[in-house]
Amino acid sequence: MCLAYMMNYFPEEVLEHVFDFLASHRDRNAVSLVCQSWYRVERFSREKVFIGNCYAIIPERVIARFPRVRSLTLKGKPHFADFNLVPSDWGGFVLPWIEAMARSGVNLEELRLKRMVVSDESLELLARSFPNLRSLVLVSCEGFTTDGLAAIASNCSVTPLGELAIGDADAMVGLILVLAMITPKVALTLFLMELDLQENEVEDCRGQWLSCFPDSCTSLVSLNFACLKGEVNLAALERLVARNHNLRSLRLNHAVPLDALQKILMQAPQLVDLGTGSYVHDPDSDTYNKLKSAVQKCTSIRSLSGFLEDVAPRCLPAIYPICLNLTSLNLSYASLIHSSELIKLIHHCSQLQRLWILDCIGDKGLGVVASTCKELQELRVFPSDIYGVGSAVVTEEGLVAISAGCPKLNSILYFCQQMTNAALITVAKNCPNFIRFRLCTLNPTIPDPVTMQPLDEGFGAIVQSCKGLKRLSLSGLLTDQVFLYIGMYAEQLEMLSVAFAGNSDKGMLYVLNGCKKLKKLEIRDSPFGNVALLADVGKYETMRSLWMSSCEVTLGACKTLAKKMPRLNVEVINENDLIDASSDDRQKVEKMYLYRTLVGPREDAPEFVWTL
Amino acid sequence: MEVGQKRVNMLGEDETELRLGLPGGGGDHVAAKNGTHTAKGSYNGKRGFNETMDLKLKLSSKETAAATVDEGKDLPKERNLLGGSGDSVKPPPAKAQVVGWPPVRSFRRNILAQKSSTGGHEDAAFVKVSMDGAPYLRKVDLKMYKSYQELSDALGNMFSSFTIGTCGSQGMKDFMNESKLMDLLNSSDYVPSYEDKDGDWMHVGDVPWEMFVDSCKRLRIMKGTEAIGLAPRAMEKCKNRS
Questions:
Q1: In the predicted model, what is the mean pLDDT of residues A480-505?
Q2: Which is higher by pLDDT, B53 or A48?
Q3: GO biological process: what's one of them (chain B) (predicted)?
Q4: Helix H segments across B61-147?
């Protein structure tokens, strides 16, 4: 009997058990295509659903297909919304999803949203409808206030989840809140295990939200409020930490002073992840000495971040004892630390796998990283001066040094003053394992300053050498040639970001024709037009989305595309009323966003968004 | 398909080698097939950028507009990739901003904006320093120093450099005798003073360092005799001492 027949005799429970081992949604999508019976088993057993574009499908259909969904991940706005290129009321509302799940009686435990609009009403409904909600992750979201959060907190206390929470501690069960654009004054509850506020612009808060943690709350595993600008009740914070013995991750905000940090560390020597608050202090003080001894007891810390300002240089050494064990260090908000102090700190961090830092570390500092951090896998160098011309703080030299010194490097985000082809070619030779390579020259069209040539050859070397490259961001002076290389060599590329690059439609065509695995393409300010857009319309159904702004595509071409491809939504974002009903088809479209969808034009598009 | 064809071509030896400079023209490899290498191609991308700058500049100035216009004019002529006017690529003028560039999330942008406005090390506090008898004034950034001692050392270094250079007039030569200068600096006759925000001349060293940095508008290193208000004649006598 052949295997196929044998497989058919497997009871579905066995298949389901086998599918349990498939964690990635891509694997699950793949198995569901094998045959009807596998499709059926898979869909009833899938608990974690990932929707990369909330407008590709409607919630009712997701629920119908995956009735046992317990965890939902949704993404809304296009990536360029992070850089103010998408108007804030473009869309991405979560309310319909929550309403649909509530109606259907979905047993939602975890909701993760990125770049979505979350209203207070949504949060209130969420809180009321899902008694087992343990985890809420909001990244770069907007639209809600502390009232919504309070609703989440107060309603969640209805169910007795104390035991569950503790039992599942290792699985990061809990209420994870990663919030954006809110004023938090959150009443949080007993079984809250994780409250994580990341990278949000939060209005000054009144500081009493921490006091809302009830005395009975002892299940916290993670607490991160680093992004809050306002003060918190320090006494409440200290008590909270003292009674939550499972606390593993604690990230304080800027308003928490050093003496509070010292007291907290005394109570929580088991911490694995620490984000300091404000660090300014007098190195000769009693507090500082106490901090030193508290830090020495925290032998489990593997990840460090915070606002380590270094007004008093001699204060940083308090941290040296934990540096040896650090695998992750984020100093990208510590803009006042002098590069010499940074370098001294880095010397102690030989186990680092992930480093986020500001460019004021300089090329010399990156050289120290290269010689010290042999385990480094991910490096991000952020710009410290984005408003002025800036001095040349990091250049191609730093990147080359890192590539030579860190053999495990696979992910980089590098903001720099300039880059050369020679450097990129060297980096490509040194590091063939890049999965993510994102380069950003502060002047977006700067050529190689040595040869005055475009950076085509350099990026070409990167894509040729790094066969596993999945994500690439380009910058610098670039012609169609670089796209030729990308189309030829970047076989695994899934996401490409292009700005101010290329000469003609050929550039875009090379990419569309060559990159078979391309999922997301975002282009701004590049001379790609209708020919490129319309050459292979079927390609867009194999991709999640395409963004083009300030390019050469016209209204007419967008209309043509929309007509040919009913399963695409072609949206024209028309902010300044540049286009109206009487517009000529020859008029250029300022912003176009298209994505594949199974459900046609969305009904919640604002006035300035036209789905053609 | 053209790309596939190129792949075959590129699998030759030299063609595959990615090196500095382009093997042929800008994006045009049709020429390459014929064995000729045409250098052509204008940087449309760059033009696009300049047009963007034109449209999106928040702080537009005559200078900026002029630069943009000039570049626009230059474009058709420029751009032989294998040579030619490589230096007509200009970085954007200082302070010019393109929407969404560099691509940094708002949260991070706001933090950076905050830091620079609350005066981190990027804020300098330059004040003029005059030393009686010196041929010209100097300027120091008070934020570079953390204490009076550091400032004093720096000033000493700064004014001692007068002894190294050559100088014309006799009067200045007298002054630039190093030992005399060091005598001056080290003697109790040397009194550093500063003008504060209210316009009063104060003795350096009386207030805490940070307060001094905040209130100091200019520095003057006086001869002691002048500081205690001796007559100008007495001061001249000091100057002519040999």
A1: 96
A2: A48
A3: regulation of DNA-templated transcription
A4: 62-77, 106-117
DSSP for A236-299, written as a single string: HHHHHHHH-TT--EEE--TTS-HHHHHHHHHH-TT-SEEEEEE----TTSHHHHHHHHHHHH-T
| Three-state DSSP class for residue B177 | coil
Contact B41 A464 (CB under 8 A): no
Whole-Å CA distances, A343 to A39, A296, A308, A323? 55, 21, 14, 12
**Crossing angle between the packed helical segments A505-514 and B2-10, to the nearest 10 degrees:** 80
Q: Residue A163 pLDDT more than 80? A: no
Residue B106: the pLDDT is 80
* Prediction pTM value: 0.71
Contact residues, B window 8-47, toward A, CB-based 8 Å cutoff: 10, 18-22, 26-29, 41-47
| Residue of chain B whose Cα is closest to the Cα of A510 | B3
User: What integer pLDDT is reported at residue B2 of this predicted model?
Assistant: 40
Which are the contacts of A341, defined by CB distance < 8 A and separation ≥ 6? A310, A313, A316
Q: Give residue B214's identity as a one-letter amino acid code.
A: D
Q: What count of CB pairs under 8 Å joins A to B? A: 177
Look at residue B111 and tell me whether its pLDDT is greater than 90. Answer: no
Q: Is the pLDDT of residue A262 over 60?
A: yes
Pick the closest to residue A445 from B182, B48, B200, B144 (CA basis).
B48
Residues of chain B positioned with their CB less than 8 A from the CB of A448: 20
State yes or no: pLDDT of A453 exceeds 90.
yes
Q: Contact A84/B99, CB-based, under 8 Å?
A: yes
CB contacts of A464 in chain B (<8 Å) are 18
Q: Select the more confidently predicted residue: A219 or A450.
A: A450
Q: How far is CA B19 from CA A425, A458, B109, B188, in A?
A: 8, 8, 37, 67
Residues 155-214 in B contacting A (C-alpha not used; CB under 8 Å):
none
Distance CA(A458)–CA(A85), nearest Å, equals 28
B219 touches chain A (CB under 8 A): no
**Mind telling me how many Å the CA of B158 is from chain A's nearest CA?**
24
CA distance B30 to B32: 5
Cross-chain CB nearest to B45 (options A453, A457, A503): A503
pLDDT digits (tens, 9 = 90+) for A32-68: 899 888 899 899 989 999 999 999 999 999 999 999 9
CB atoms B45 and A478 under 8 Å: yes
Give the burial string for A142-180 (b: 16+ CB within 10 Å, else e). bbbbbebbbbbbbbbbeeebeebbeebeeebbbbbbbbb
Residues of chain A in contact with residue B22, where contact means CB-CB under 8 angstroms, are 453-454, 456-457, 479, 481
CA distance B224 to B230: 9
Band of residue B100 on the pLDDT scale cut at 50, 70, 90: confident
A425 contacts A400 by C-beta, under 8 angstroms: no
Amino acid A149: pLDDT:
62
The pLDDT confidence band at residue B17, using thresholds 50, 70 and 90, is very low
Contact A442 B102 (CB under 8 A): yes
Probe site for chain A from B18, B38, B145 (most A CB atoms < 10 A): B18
